[in-house]
Design goal:
Elements (H helix, E strand, L loop, with lengths): L29 H4 L8 E8 L8 E9 L17 H14 L2 E7 L1 H26 L6 E5 L27 E4 L2 H4 L1 H24 L5 H4 L5 H10 L13
Parallel strand pairs: 1-4, 4-5
Antiparallel strand pairs: 1-2, 2-3
Helix pairs in contact: 2-5
């Protein structure tokens, strides 16, 4: 408004625009290096794939980095953001770049028997002991997500069975969307995704009607229609609501 008799405009103060935080174009090791301390030098980035699929295994990848002196690896991102051909190209580079790496799997039958959290723990434990068997002993784990499903003392839900036997006993730190910002976790996601996709392509040869070479066992309309027509295979998670 203009005050009567003055003709002078009233100036209003604008609040400074809030700065928007943008995620880096590619993940770095900045978060990982924040864990460097006496006695902590090797960090294992961990990520899973296949959790929400209707068929096939759930797979857990591990990529270990040395917090003291570890270079970056170009082009690696969360596997969901990469084209299949880029994941295939990067997978051997990730294995060469990492101090240690592995992928563990839990089958659809194990998912039915243990529940998804128990199966994730089993797959992660298999990958963990593969890393240990290679002579690499990570001091801690950086796990994508908000729930520590890897440690044996963590109870997933009343419907999940706790696998017995050896398990990962290293400290586990969780971080939501770690695969977007943490290079070790993004690298682990690439390893897990490539390994699981290869399994699903092999299973497609056995059951081509379900389109696993394309949908990788996830709940597409084509996949659900095939289940309605043909029924589930031994590789489907029959404890789930498939339809």
């Amino acid at each position: 408004m203009v005050p009567a008799g003055t003709g002078a405009p009233v100036r209003t103060q604008r609040k400074p625009a809030a700065r928007t935080k943008h995620a880096p174009d590619f993940p770095t090791l900045d978060v990982e290096r924040g864990f460097l301390s006496p006695g902590v030098t090797l960090l294992a980035g961990v990520d899973e794939v296949g959790r929400g699929a209707l068929a096939g295994p759930v797979s857990v990848g591990i990529a270990v980095v040395d917090l003291r002196d570890h270079g970056l690896l170009a082009d690696v991102r969360d596997s969901k953001l990469l084209k299949p051909e880029d994941r295939e190209r990067l997978e051997p580079l990730v294995r060469e770049w990492a101090v240690g790496s592995a992928v563990g799997h839990a089958s659809s039958a194990e998912i039915d028997a243990l529940g998804i959290v128990g199966a994730l723990r089993l797959a992660g434990t298999r990958a963990w002991f593969e890393v240990l068997a290679s002579g690499v002993h990570p001091d801690l784990v950086l796990l994508d997500g908000s729930h520590n499903w890897l440690s044996p003392q963590t109870q997933g839900s009343l419907f999940d069975t706790e696998p017995s036997g050896p398990a990962c006993e290293a400290p586990v730190h969780t971080r939501v969307k770690a695969d977007m910002s943490c290079l070790s976790v993004a690298a682990a996601s690439v390893l897990a995704k490539v390994a699981r996709d290869r399994i699903m392509i092999e299973l497609h040869e056995e059951y081509p009607a379900f389109g696993w070479n394309e949908n990788k066992g996830y709940a597409t309309s084509f996949h659900r229609d095939a289940i309605r027509s043909l029924g589930p295979t031994p590789y489907h998670r029959t404890s789930w609501n498939l339809l």
